[in-house]
Amino acid sequence: MRKPVIAGNWKMNMTPEEGVVLVEGIWDLVSGQEQAEVVVCPPFVDIPAVSESIRTKSMEIGLGAQNMYWEETGAFTGEVSPSMLLKLNVTHVIIGHSERRQFFGESDQGVNRKVKSAIDHGIVPIMCVGESLKQREAGEMQDVVTSQVKCGLFELEERETDSIIIAYEPIWAIGTGVAATVTDAEEAISLVRKTVGDVLGTDAAEIIRILYGGSVKPENISEFISTDNVDGALVGGASLKPESFAGIVRFS
Ligand code: PEP
Q1: What is the pLDDT of residues 132-189, one digit of tens each?
Q2: Which of 248, 170, 249, 245 lies closest to 19, judged by CA?
Q3: How confident is the model at residue 120, as a pLDDT?
């Protein structure tokens, strides 16, 4: 039985003060619920304040970063290491979000190094994959998604599967208000699960949690969750208000 995960990607929104108000507002509405694991992913500069708020109020909320570098220390201007994140009680990290691939040139190889480094440090990577509209219209969804999953999981071992989450996020559905149909999401996510099986074995495919991301809101989450293969959601816009994010957690 795979427990659903609802993870909020705040992207480049919220000051530290606003982040604390947001996480506390979310906790007011979701404390006591047990059907889903809840994770918030604030910008780096918000993490100390949000982390402290989670700790002092004993919130059962995971804390995710939106990116990290794979090295420990050194001359990597602008980067943040896994051990720095661990010091702030970070539990999860989004790796290879399409905005990072698109605007910051992240490659599949870089994603793989980050995934491995996160696992080695005991941080759960939420590895994002997904095709663009152009690729989908050209009939390339299967090839793109399979290749991103295979490259991202390269040289991982089966025992590491419970320490990784994959998010299928079709780029054309992110921030557009137009979610994928449940049929399209289920088709892509079952392909992701099959590919995990090919790379890491059938047990791994059974265990790994795979999320859908792209214009998820309280009104559509239950359709996604009711499918066989969707184990939760990575949520952007709707994670910025306690009511909408909590609505997604409650309907999951
Ligand atoms: C995202 O950025 O990961 C995302 C899914 O955004 P939105 O929910 O706004 O489409």
Answers
A1: 999 999 999 999 999 999 999 999 987 777 789 999 999 999 999 999 999 999 999 9
A2: 245
A3: 94
66 lines ligand 1 (CB under 6 A): no
Q: pLDDT, tens digit, for every residue of 2-35?
A: 999 999 999 999 999 999 999 999 999 999 999 9
Q: What is the value of pTM for the model shown?
A: 0.97
Q: What is the Å distance from ligand 1's center to 234 Cα?
A: 7
For ligand 1, pick from 5, 166, 174, 217 the residue to mutate: most ligand atoms within 8 Å of CB.
174
Q: Is 229 in the pocket of ligand 1 (CB under 6 A)?
A: no
Residue nearest to atom 8 of ligand 1 (CA): 236
- Options 37, 106, 169, 186, the catalytic residue: 169
Does the annotation mark 92 as catalytic? no
- Domains along the sequence of the chain with CATH: 5-250 (3.20.20.70)
155 is catalytic: no
- Residue pair 196/166 in contact (Cβ under 8 Å)? The answer is yes
CA of 238 to the centre of ligand 1 (A): 8
pLDDT at 1: 84
Q: Which long-range contacts (CB under 8 A, 24 or more apart) does 242-247 make?
A: 242/22, 242/25, 242/26, 242/28, 242/29, 243/29, 244/217, 244/218, 245/6, 245/8, 245/26, 246/26, 246/29, 246/30, 247/217, 247/218, 247/221
Which amino acid type is present at position 4? P
pLDDT at site 158: 78
Please compute the mean of the pLDDT values over residues 203-207 and round it to a whole number: 93
Spatial neighbors of 105 by CB under 8 A, at least 6 apart, are: none
